[in-house]
Design a protein that fits this description.
Strand order of the largest sheet: 1-30-29-28
Radius of gyration: 19 Å
Strand content: over 45%
GO molecular function: RNA binding; ubiquitin binding
Number of helices: 2
Keywords: Repeat, WD repeat
Protein name: (rape) hypothetical protein
GO biological process, one term: transcription-dependent tethering of RNA polymerase II gene DNA at nuclear periphery
Structural class: mainly beta
CATH superfamily of one domain: YVTN repeat-like/Quinoprotein amine dehydrogenase
Helix content: under 10%
Largest sheet: 4 strands, antiparallel
CATH architecture of one domain: 7 Propeller
Organism: Brassica napus
Length: about 350
């Protein structure tokens, strides 16, 4: 069983990343950068949604807390409107709130489910918010209306979803991966059993909408292409493992410029990968606590990640005295995130 001992606890920031302050009082559940500016939003188990403005000068970073709002219960997910004006958040109070963060307006409830909302995304091509819940539904919302535009039944609880219009990928319990073409959102485009043997933790759509990544609790990632003629490009690989210790892959983020991606895991590490050359570009040092969530900023020059207890060992292993929740910012060097040219073998 994986443990984080006292010795490891001394090394809370081994990558010498910039720490965003003040830290949330409890575990961090999601991080989302604005698509237009270096504004970072974090949701956490202390029922709060917090916003910071990040500024960069050469190789140094600074953060300034801007504002925060509250939910009635722990907040699990967040998303930005594509114009960077508005933040959406959802969680255990079964509702999604819309917060006009740039104008300093008050949050309003724009979505309701019958169970916690665990993931969400704004769909720019449709001007709709999509929310996924443990109530086994996806709901699409026009934020000017009280009722959902469409409710889509899922085969099981939603765990993760990702949109790159017109592609929507949903990971549910029982290893289902459901693909929707948003030009016809009321019909499943494809249903796939995960190529990974264990529970899905996260999914993310390829930037070119041609497929998706899926991560699981077994420290493995699957690379899946949708086109039947591209199936020979599908593969899975191991990551976030240490000898016999196996850790969950908690977050998958594509770099917005280079098309490479980052994985973050319960081992406290984040790594950068190139799926096309099947290479790990950079392995970062392990933090003393798990990394439950992460996000690139709009140009990929900043990678935000949280380090905190992720509840994968239950409440009995949670020690508030040692389990500080931190948000760190890493500035990737080009060599860490830019794909390396493939070397031709010379063989015919």
């Amino acid at each position: 069983m994986a443990t984080f001992g006292a010795a490891a606890n001394a090394n809370t920031n081994p990558n010498k990343s910039y720490e965003v302050t003040p830290s949330p009082a409890d575990s961090i559940s999601s991080l989302s950068f604005s698509p237009r500016a270096d504004i970072l939003v974090a949701t956490s188990w202390d029922n709060q949604v917090r916003c910071w403005e990040i500024s960069r000068s050469g190789t140094s970073l600074a953060s300034a807390p801007k504002a925060s709002i509250s939910h009635d219960q722990p907040v699990l997910c967040s998303a930005w409107k594509d114009d960077g004006s508005t933040v959406f958040s959802g969680g255990c109070d079964k509702q999604a709130k819309m917060w006009p963060v740039l104008s300093g307006g008050q949050p309003v409830t724009v979505a309701m489910h019958d169970a916690p909302i665990v993931d969400m995304a704004w769909i720019p091509g449709m001007n709709l918010l999509v929310t996924g819940s443990w109530d086994k539904t996806l709901k699409y919302w026009d934020t000017r209306q009280q009722a959902p535009v469409h409710t889509q039944q899922l085969p099981d609880k939603c765990y993760s979803l990702s949109v790159k219009h017109p592609l929507l990928v949903v990971g549910t319990a029982d290893r289902n991966l459901i693909v929707f073409n948003l030009q016809n959102p009321q019909t499943e485009f494809k249903r796939i059993v995960s190529p990974l043997k264990y529970q899905t933790r996260c999914v993310t759509a390829f930037p070119d909408q041609q497929g998706f990544l899926v991560g699981s609790i077994e420290g493995r990632v699957g690379v899946h292409h949708l086109d039947d003629s591209q199936q020979n490009k599908n593969f899975t690989f191991k990551c976030h493992r240490d000898g016999n210790e196996i850790y969950s892959v908690n977050a998958l983020n594509f770099h917005p410029v280079h098309g490479t991606f980052a994985t973050a895991g319960s081992d406290g590490a984040f790594n950068f990968w190139d799926k096309d050359s099947k290479q790990r570009l950079k392995a970062m040092s392990r933090c003393s606590q798990p990394i439950p969530c992460s996000s690139f900023n709009h140009d990929g020059s900043i990678y935000a990640y949280a380090s905190c207890y992720d509840w994968n060992k239950g409440a009995e292993n949670h020690n508030p005295a040692t389990a500080k929740s931190s948000i760190f910012l890493h500035m990737p060097q080009e060599s860490e995130v830019k794909a390396k040219p493939r070397v031709a073998s010379g063989r015919k």
